[in-house]
Amino acid sequence: MNEQSKQSAEHRRRRPLKHRNVLTRSSRFGPNMTPMVDVTLVILIFFMASASIAGHEWFLRADLPEIQDPDLVTSGFSLPTPMLSADLFIRDEQVFVRGIGDDPRPLQSVIEQIRTMDPDSANGLILGIRASDTVPYWAVVALHDAASSVSMRVAIR
Amino acid sequence: MRTRSIISNEGSGARINVTPMIDVVMVLIVFYLLVGQLAIDRKASIDLPSSSTGINQTQEQDPIIIGITADGSLSINGNAIDSNRFTGEIEGMHTRAPGTPIRVRADRDAPFGVVRPIMHQLRDANIRGVELVTEQRP
After folding, report:
1. Which fold, B50-136?
2. Minimum-distance CB partner of A60 among B24, B54, B57
3. Distance from CA of B99 to the nearest CA of A (A)
4. A70-156: CATH, from 1.25.40, 3.40.50, 1.20.58, 3.30.420
5. Which member of A102, A114, B8, B112 has the lowest number of beta carbons within 10 Å of its beta carbon?
């Protein structure tokens, strides 16, 4: 028996020491923050990425006026709303505008002219935009944008 | 009674905590699902025109969003719709909720010959104004 206890004491001595980490031991007493930090970081990256993908959207208001009979308009007693009319069309693979100014002019020139207008005098005016089939939609929006910048209302016709 | 985890093996000293891995993997799965959905939406490929002015208010009411791609394909609130059924559908939606804002998301390169009939159909459905969706110019 005495021999046995000696052997077991010898065996215990030969066993390698168990590594103990003070930090690991202490972490058992608090909440494990690692999962939360991981998830939070991934969510953060997701929102950052989606924000840059989505971009920021604006809305330009456009009226859709009813087609009126000219006779009814002239026979009415109400004063007509001051209205400019711009017809967009393609010439030599460029977008031109007819109706603002004398001759058809390139879109960019008309946009610059509109942007130089006094917003106080332009306020209340309605710009009616008409475009031929081949005119790209961005050209209509560009003209709309210029008109909105000087507080004009825009009607798509 | 002491509870023992199948994964953790305290006796051996090797302890693999899989909780963070599962969390991250699940979030990544959700992430890819959402990105995949976004990609499908973008596959409808509407490249918006840009503008320097506009309003960015969000109304209480959910808008009706009309999508027009460059090739003239139509969608209402993300659901593809045939042009023959468009007027009836939009008229019905407008009648059910008259104050609902209508937003037109048309591709910047769409020819106006594709956009105009939609505008006319909206006007015929007694809609007097729309909001054109653009991308804010930096």
Report:
1. Nucleotidyltransferase; domain 5 (3.30.420)
2. B54
3. 15
4. 3.30.420
5. A102
